[in-house]
Design a protein that fits this description.
mainly beta; Metal Binding Protein, Guanine Nucleotide Exchange Factor, Chain A; seven-stranded mixed β-sheet; three-stranded antiparallel β-sheet; 10 strands; 9% helix; globular; binds zinc ion
Amino acid sequence: MTTDTMVSDKDTKNSSAKTMTGSCLCGSVKFKATGVDGNHGVCHCGTCRKWSGGPTMGVHVESLDFESEDNVTAYISSDWAERGFCKNCGTHLFYRLKEGNMTVVWAGAFDDNEGFELEREIYLDNKPAGYNFAGEHPRMTEHEFLKSLGMVE
Ligand SMILES: [Zn+2]
Ligand SMILES: [Zn+2]
């Protein structure tokens, strides 16, 4: 397994999980997410950077419901995951594992970003040298992250 593996453990599930709304840039996609965990993880992997134009900031949610799915589509970015976006404006909406029940919504798609804490960075060794995120939080290399999921030795 190589890059495209977002945060998938649920050890941060906490009591502040709540329901939040969001939308795409053009407004044709509106969603409601429940069980929003209040933290975001930053991923520096090459797939995220190519797809988003920079590192991704993902927020775990328990469920994601769209008011209308007419403009929602997804790119199959690996054998195990897809990345959803708005057909009209291209706003990145979610990352979802095909099997299991793991959905990440990109922080910027929520209407309110103020409550999110930066929980950790992953794929740090894939990060270009030209930028850094400030603050004290765990920073995991690709190997450390995959090992934490039991995917590599
Ligand atoms: Zn849109
Ligand atoms: Zn990534």
